[in-house]
């Protein structure tokens, strides 16, 4: 049996925000439940009141407007996988959805839930960081947008206040001549928590030099991080093997790995360098042909 | 923690049942005698509890019963009976794809969802579709064959 709780089921966003304004922090939002229900069964969380967001249709849209892609916080990973806008404008996000847990979990887990859960091993924050995404947090008092990079604070810690809902995540449509890639190392092919994960995104000018580079690393620090020095080294450079190797090395230097049941610190550092090199090589090749 | 009467639409039948908010769909279904829905890990890792919720396969151990009100719930027993089996159920029997049988209902639910979207899947697509269902007995070989067999038979 799950521990006892009351369950609220608002049908509109204003209703939900009112419930949170009155009841937080005792009232906790429930999205797909794929982390929260598990945590409740294990005793890690014992909220006395859950508020299901399942009735909030406003949180389930994916749209392009004002040069941005906006994904509602209640959008499931399965929706991300199947959506044509994501496939066209953010394939790196789709790559993270493909290897997210398993098909059953993907039908319930939400992008908002994955961000709010704040695990350093989560899939979805990596492509969103390289896309320069920001999150939209709504409360009865109003709405604010903050960069995802600021939103993620530490292990299972984010800037979400108890009375706030993560209603959307949005990012600018990537410039032409952009290419991104994501890869996750797991202990098996499916349903695996990341041992190490990497996302990269580069946008190159006509001269073949890298205009903008982003590298995000997962499971190698208390939160998903940018490899800033590595990004700096790529900026303004053509993507040669030497430049890529330097960026890969600097990415490994940026990590603060720990050893745990999934892998040792040394393994993670080593594999980060390999993955960054491989992914940058892959996107460099795509650039040439695009 | 106040229970309320919810209406669950299971395999085409309406059930009105008083449930506390902390009851999962898995528990509610089994208490309604849909014991074909199996309890495995109760944490979304094994897929034994899989059901179709508005056509999508989900882990019923992670759905609260109150959240399933208004949805069309299909369990394995709703797909066919002993006298009138669904082609997937028949194929699992014919291919020897069930040993202890515990993963079978969940496997069939995932396979049904696959064939609804993709009537002619490749082996890789079948493997992907059942990647949320664990089997400790068969090694998956006969399960994949059964799904291929059912796909062929259903397209005849």
Query: Roughly what fraction of the amino acids of chain A lie in strands?
Result: 25-35%
Low-confidence stretches of chain B: none
- Please state the average pLDDT score of chain B: 97
Shape descriptor of chain A reads: globular
Count all strands of chain B and give the number.
5
Question: How many structural domains does the protein architecture of chain B include?
Answer: 2
What is the compact description of this entry?
The complex is a heterodimer of chains A (290) and B (156). By secondary structure, chain A is of the alpha+beta class. Chain A has helices at residues 13-23, 36-42, 77-82, 84-89, 91-98, 103-106, 111-117, 125-130, 148-151, 228-234, 241-253, 265-289, and strands at 6-8, 27-30, 49-52, 62-65, 68-72, 134-139, 142-147, 152-154, 157-158, 165-172, 178-185, 196-204, 210-218, 225-226.
Describe it for me?
- With 290 residues, chain A is of the alpha+beta class.
- Chain A has 3 domains: 6-52, Uridine Diphospho-n-acetylenolpyruvylglucosamine Reductase, domain 2 (2-Layer Sandwich); 57-172, Uridine Diphospho-n-acetylenolpyruvylglucosamine Reductase, domain 3 (2-Layer Sandwich); 178-289, CO dehydrogenase flavoprotein, C-terminal domain (Enolase-like, domain 1, 2-Layer Sandwich), CATH 3.30.390.50.
- Chain A has helices spanning 13-23, 36-42, 77-82, 84-89, 91-98, 103-106, 111-117, 125-130, 148-151, 228-234, 241-253, 265-289; strands at residues 6-8, 27-30, 49-52, 62-65, 68-72, 134-139, 142-147, 152-154, 157-158, 165-172, 178-185, 196-204, 210-218, 225-226.
- Chain A has a 5-stranded antiparallel β-sheet. In chain A, strands 11-12-13-14 form a 4-stranded antiparallel β-sheet.
- The termini of chain A are far apart.
- Chain B has 156 residues and is α+β, with helices and mostly antiparallel strands.
- Chain B has 2 domains: 4-75, Roll (Ubiquitin-like (UB roll)); 87-154, [2Fe-2S]-binding domain (DNA polymerase, domain 1, Orthogonal Bundle), CATH 1.10.150.
- Chain B has helices at 25-31, 87-94, 104-117, 123-129, 141-154; strands spanning 4-10, 13-19, 50-53, 56-59, 72-74.
- Chain B has a 5-stranded mixed β-sheet with strand order 2-1-5-3-4, with helices on both faces.
- In chain B, helix 2 packs across helix 5 (141-154).
- The longest helix of chain B has 14 residues, at 104-117.
- The model of chain B has no long low-confidence stretch (mean pLDDT 97).
- At the A-B interface, helix 2 and helix 6 of A face strand 4 of B.
């Amino acid at each position: 049996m799950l521990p006892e709780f009351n369950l609220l089921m608002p049908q509109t966003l204003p209703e939900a925000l009112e419930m949170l304004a009155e009841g937080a922090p005792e009232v906790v939002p429930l999205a797909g439940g794929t982390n929260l229900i598990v945590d409740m069964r294990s005793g890690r969380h014992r909220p006395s009141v859950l508020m299901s967001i399942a009735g909030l249709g406003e949180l389930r849209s994916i749209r392009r407007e004002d040069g941005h892609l906006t994904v509602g916080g209640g959008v499931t990973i399965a929706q991300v996988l199947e959506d044509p806008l994501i496939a066209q404008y953010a394939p790196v996000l789709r790559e993270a959805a493909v290897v997210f847990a398993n098909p059953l979990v993907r039908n319930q887990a939400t992008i908002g839930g994955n961000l709010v859960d704040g695990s350093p091993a989560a899939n979805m924050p990596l492509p969103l960081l390289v896309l320069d995404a920001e999150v939209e947090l709504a409360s009865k008092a109003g709405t604010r947008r903050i960069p995802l990079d600021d939103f993620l604070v530490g292990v299972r810690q984010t800037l979400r206040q108890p009375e706030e809902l993560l209603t959307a995540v949005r990012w600018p449509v990537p410039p032409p001549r952009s290419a991104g890639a994501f890869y996750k190392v797991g202990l098996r092919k499916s349903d695996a928590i990341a041992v190490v994960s990497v996302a990269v995104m580069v946008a190159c000018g006509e001269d073949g030099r890298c205009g903008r580079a982003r590298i995000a690393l997962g499971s190698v620090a208390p939160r998903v991080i940018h490899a800033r020095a590595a990004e700096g080294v790529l900026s303004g450079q053509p993507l040669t093997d030497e430049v890529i190797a330097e960026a890969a090395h600097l990415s490994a230097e940026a990590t603060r790995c720990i050893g745990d049941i999934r892998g040792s610190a040394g393994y993670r550092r080593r594999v980060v360098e390999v993955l960054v090199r491989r992914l940058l090589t892959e996107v460099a090749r795509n650039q040439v042909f695009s | 923690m106040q229970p309320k009467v919810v209406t669950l639409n299971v395999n085409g039948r309406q059930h009105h049942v008083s449930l506390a908010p902390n009851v999962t769909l898995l528990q509610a279904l089994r208490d309604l005698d849909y014991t074909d829905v199996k309890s495995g890990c109760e944490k979304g890792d094994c897929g034994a509890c899989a059901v179709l919720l508005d056509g999508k396969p989900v882990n019923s151990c992670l759905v609260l019963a109150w959240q399933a009100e208004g949805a069309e719930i299909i369990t394995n027993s709703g797909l066919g009976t002993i006298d009138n089996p669904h082609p997937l159920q028949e194929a699992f029997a014919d291919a020897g794809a069930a040993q202890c049988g515990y993963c079978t209902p969940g496997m069939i639910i995932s396979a049904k969802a696959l064939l609804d979207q993709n009537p002619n899947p490749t082996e890789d697509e079948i493997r992907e579709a059942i990647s949320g269902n664990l089997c400790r007995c068969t090694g998956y070989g006969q399960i994949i064959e059964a799904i291929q067999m059912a796909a062929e038979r259903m397209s005849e």
